[in-house]
Amino acid sequence: MTLGAEGAAEVERRARAILELDGVNVSYGGTRAVRDVSMAVEPNTVTALIGASGCGKTTLLRSLNRMHDLTKGARVEGRVLFEGQDIYDRTIDPVAVRRVIGMVFQKPNPFPTMSVYDNVVAGLKLAGRVKRSELDEVVERSLTQAALWDEVEDRLHTPATGLSGGQQQRLCIARSLAVDPAVLLMDEPTSALDPQATARIEELLAELKRYVTIVIVTHNMQQAGRVSDWTAFMHLGELVEQGPTDQIFTRPQQPLTERYISGHFG
Amino acid sequence: MVRTLSRRGGASRRRRTANAAATAMVVLAALAVLTPLVLVLVYLVGQGIGAIDLAFFTQLPAPAGEAGGGVAQAVVGTLELLALAAVIGLVIGIGTGVFVAEYPDHPLVPTVRLLSDALIGIPAIVMGLVAYALLVVPLRHFNGLSGGVSLGLIMIPYVVRATDEVMRLVPGVVREAGFALGLPRWRVILQIVLPSAASGIVTGAMLAMARVAGEAAPLLFTAFGNQYWNFDPLKPVAALPLVIYTYSISPYDSWHRIASAASLVLVAFVFATTLLTRFVFARRAR
Questions:
Q1: A98, A110, B216, B218: which has the fewest Cβ within 10 Å?
Q2: Residues of A with Cβ-Cβ distance to B184 under 8 angstroms
Q3: pLDDT per residue as tens digits for the range A184-211
Q4: CA distance B173 to chain A (A)
Q5: In a domain, A244, yes or no
């Protein structure tokens, strides 16, 4: 294999990567949902996973913080390196992995019995002793980072389920940020929200990059174009093409990518 | 062909007749359920209300044939037995319910669930025998603890089923949210899933309590009953169902009235518990 200019750039990217996937395969009870995916995620960037329904993008995302451990019959092969450590190594504690690699889900899922405040600190409080004054700080910081503080400041102790859908989703983002993760995985975080709430979350992502690395699965190509720095296009479980977002959207190398981008399928 | 929408046609009339007949049948069925319940209540109130006074709740039984006295020791005894039963029934029942709901892949779960459901069908008196063998025979005398254990054993399968069902209603995404925060499984279950299911579990627990509050059979040869105050769970303890049994088969009219009064108190207690649970959780649910 010869290393062209592009190959050299890729080696450099991999050296900087906070998350590196190396030949990742995921199967459910024998059916292969993700095939041999390798890619690098640079710190403090937004990486978008795009592709048609059922292409394996959510499955791939869930393999990045060992959420598949909780699914019966799911099997992950290959290596996922977080800062050089393989998170699937036998010596690794999956609970510790999820502390540094958080996740925001498709539908807002605040803890139904808890207040706004308790939702934000759930990860910290349930994990051990934290001082009350520290919790207050974490709540304000996390909610501010999630652009929700101004809206809930005076109702921190009301039930979280009383918030609107968009607010609940930002609450879930705040809850993930509260445990200070290095990477935040987002699985179509705006698919259950109206356009306004979606716009707020998209604006938020640009801000959040400063604190965390984001990998986002999205159905919405415009969204991928607006929020991400790097885009990976998947089809039938395979990673067809990846590159800087503007390049993927303006000069895709693969005909399949071009057809998807221009709306011919998906 | 003209498509008729008229009510006058034969088909339309037949359909309306069938509908009316079906409605009448389900209303009759509902009435058939309510009638015995209402009759029992009316009878109990008629027979027993006269014997319910302060003395009923504060005094020990008067000697046979003498007027006055109460069954205070049985009212308190029933509460003691229910408390013991709740400790056993709830701890084991909720624990098992959590196990079958939250560890569905564990190889023991199908067997546990099947056996627990089968336990519901086991006659109460058999549970009494179990408690008798475990706690009365070794201690060589009847005691309240064995009574509480027998009632607790009866409660277990009801609590297991209630816990299992309501915990499985908690959406998987709520659990995933907990795991994604880096929480260990036991914390997710204990501090996120259980609280979300709490109202259903409490309702199930209350129904199980109501179910065992009126049991006499398993207590006959365990708690045994007592005419005097006794707060020692290792000695015989009185209970309202035992009072009902003993006093009903006695030859004294005054005792028959006390038996009716005790029945009324028991029914009222079960009713009140059920209504209170509903009320509390109906308010919480809003």
A1: B216
A2: 95
A3: 999 999 998 889 989 989 999 999 999 9
A4: 6
A5: yes
